[in-house]
Amino acid sequence: MNIRQIEAFHAFMETGSVTHAGERLGISQPAVSKLLKGFGESCGFKLFMRSNGRLVPTLEARLVAAEVERLIAGTERIERVAAAVRNREWGQVTIAALPALASRYLPRALSPFLAEQRDLRLTLQSRASPRIAELVMAQQVDIGLSILPFDHPDVTAEAVIRFDLMCFLPSQHPLAKKTTIGVEDLRNESFISLERDDCSLMTIDRAFQMRGVQKRNRIEVPMSETACSFVANGVGVSILPPFVGMDYPSDQLVRRPLLPKTSMDIWLLTSSRRPLSLAAQQLTEFIHAALASFQQPLPAAASEQ
């Protein structure tokens, strides 16, 4: 038996008429009769009896019809899933992102997208940048968002944005009155620092060293959002990415541009050995748009990479 015979049988059982079954399938009445005959021969028993010139299903035909109904429902579901995949509304995507993005900003930024794509399943992992590259290379995640590029033939690295680090201050801090904060202004200030293995720490320390300023580390924390919490409670100051601490009101925490400008990149890492699904492709487009507001001009060399 073949699927066309099954469709003809299902159409006949639902409409009760060879003519109506043909109309539903868009084929002639003789074509339906031929398909029904072939289906009966495949089953090996009588499916219909004639009564007053009409085909009447046998009990055996009704038993088969119950199974055919489930089969047709399954194929219709496959059609809906295929349409959803085609329209990028169905799938499963795994993202590994640096904690500064994964803890607060990405959940908030991606929520409107996920609210519209209700059949899309997302897994969001918070990982350090070196670990993100490893996960992408091993094809354990679909998308990696790292502040480190990764030079490996199995990984494609794209510079998404270049952002400027900012100075975070308690709202009542005397420096909060300034429109920009120089590294020199932070001399003798209690500094809330990220852990020693954080990839941004070397960049921040270099900015202090270039200005000959000794950074007074008072508190060391594992995540940028934790540093924001300490700043908002008046414990000290910090230098962090612009996309953290966005939920704090201005009467608790303020952010000011840092001079000299201290920039970092966010790299989007994907596997070069496995193409992204349609859903993952759409998600990368949305991530680009979500991060665009923090974009600083990328140098030509970074753009070419």
Short key terms for the protein model shown above:
3 domains; Arc Repressor Mutant, subunit A; four-stranded mixed sheet; 305 residues; disordered C terminus; alpha/beta; D-Maltodextrin-Binding Protein, domain 2; 10 helices
Quickly describe the structure:
Keywords: DNA-binding, Transcription, Transcription regulation. This protein is α/β, with parallel strands linked by helices.
Describe this structure in words.
By secondary structure, the chain is an alpha/beta fold. It has three domains: 84 residues, Arc Repressor Mutant, subunit A (Orthogonal Bundle), CATH 1.10.10.10; 113 residues, Periplasmic binding protein-like II (D-Maltodextrin-Binding Protein, domain 2, 3-Layer(aba) Sandwich), CATH 3.40.190; 96 residues, D-Maltodextrin-Binding Protein, domain 2. Helix content is 42%, strand content 25%. The chain is built from ten helices and 13 strands. The strands form four sheets. It has a five-stranded mixed sheet, sandwiched between helices. Strands 8-12-7-11 form a four-stranded mixed sheet, covered by helices on one side. It has a two-stranded antiparallel sheet with strand order 1-2. Helix 5 links the parallel strand 3 and strand 4. The C terminus is likely disordered. Belongs to the LysR transcriptional regulatory family. Keywords: DNA-binding, Transcription, Transcription regulation. InterPro entries: LysR_HTH_N, LysR_subst-bd, NocR_PBP2, WH-like_DNA-bd_sf, WH_DNA-bd_sf.
